[in-house]
Amino acid sequence: MVSIDDFPKIDAHIHFNADRKTVPKLADKYGFDLLTINTEVPEFPPIDKQQQLAVKYRETENCKLYHAATIDTENILEPGWAGRAIKQIKEAMNNGACGIKFWKNIGMSIQRPDGSFLMLDDPELKPVFEFLEQQQIPVLGHQGEPKNCWLPVEEMTVQSDKDYFSAHPRYHMYKHDEYPDYWRHIEARDAVLARHPQLQFVGLHIASLEWSLDEVEQRLDRFHNMAIDLAERISHLYYHAAENRDRVIRFFEKYQDRIIYGTDIIDDPAADPADIIEELTHRWESHWQFLATNKKLSSPQVTAPFQGLALPQSILEKIYRTNAIHWYQLSQK
C-alpha cells in the first residue's frame, strides 16, 4: 500500500498569515510544498501583507511556498475600479502569483445603494474576467457557502456546519431570505464560465457543490477549463462514501486530472503554533487515510462509519501534486 512519504505533495489551499516558519517546517517533514491563497477576509491581515509574507517565505527549508493573489474590492461599484483591479492583477503576477482569487464577499456582502447584492456575473467584473481569460491567468473561485448553510440545522450533513451555524445564526442563510439564495451563487459562477469559455478556473471547496457529486459532474462535463479543489470539504466526501463508496471512487477515477488537494488550514498569527501543528498534522494524516487506504474509518463530522477509497498511486500523485502544478501553472525550478 502506498505511503504518505512515497512521493512529493502540495497542499494547494492554505492561508499563510503568520510571520513564522511553523507550517513550512511541518510541510518539509511531510514532503509537502504549499500554496497560500490571499483572501480579503476581514479577520486576515491586509492582502498586501499576505502577499508580502508569501514572497518572504517562498523558499523555507525544503518547502516551496507558492501563492495566489486576490483583488481589492473596495470601491468596486465606482467607475474605474476594473482598471485598477487589472493593474493590481498585473502587479501580483509580476510578483510571482500563480492566479487570482474571487471570494464569497462578492455575492454575500457587497451591496449596491438599493440593497441588492453584487454578484460574480455582474457587469462591474466583466472587464476583469475578460483580461484574465485573454492572459490565461488561473482564477480561483469561492462562491457562496455549503448548501447546508441554506438548510435547517437538523438537515445539515456534517457536524462542523451544524456547530458553526448554530453558534453563528447571523451567517445561517436559512434564516435570512434577504440574501441571495444558494442557487443564485451557483448560477452567477456558471454564467461567468459560460461567458468566458477559455477562462482557467478552479472551483474551490468542490465548487460549492459538495452536497452532490452529480452536480459537480455536470459542471465539469460542461466547463472543460474547470477543475475543483477539496479544501475544507473532505468531510462531505466522508458522508458520500458512507452512502456509496463506489460512487465516490468512480468520481475520482473519472475526474482524476481535475481534482486538487488542499486543507484550508489558517496559520493565524494569534494562534498557538502548537495548535496549528496539531490540526494540520491531523488533517494531512486523516485525509491520507481516507484517500489512500481501504481502512474502516469514522469521523466526528459524520454519523455513519465509512471506508477509505484506496485510490491508486497514479491518481494520488495527480490529486496531491501534478494537478496543482498544471492548473496553477506552478514553476518547478
TrEMBL record:
The keyword Lyase is assigned to this record: yes
Key words of the record: Coiled coil, Hydrolase, Lyase
Coiled-coil positions: 206-233
Gene3D superfamilies per the UniProt record, alphabetical: Metal-dependent hydrolases
Keyword Zinc in annotation: no
Residues annotated as domain Amidohydrolase-related: 79-329
Pfam families: Amidohydro_2
One cellular component (GO) term of this entry: cytoplasm
Gene Ontology molecular functions: carboxy-lyase activity; hydrolase activity
InterPro entries for the chain: ACMSD, Amidohydro-rel, Metal_Hydrolase
GO biological process, one term: secondary metabolic process
PANTHER family referenced in this protein's UniProt entry, alphabetically: 2-AMINO-3-CARBOXYLMUCONATE-6-SEMIALDEHYDE DECARBOXYLASE (PTHR21240), ISO-OROTATE DECARBOXYLASE (EUROFUNG) (PTHR21240:SF28)
Name of the protein this chain belongs to: Amidohydrolase family protein
Organism: Fodinibius halophilus
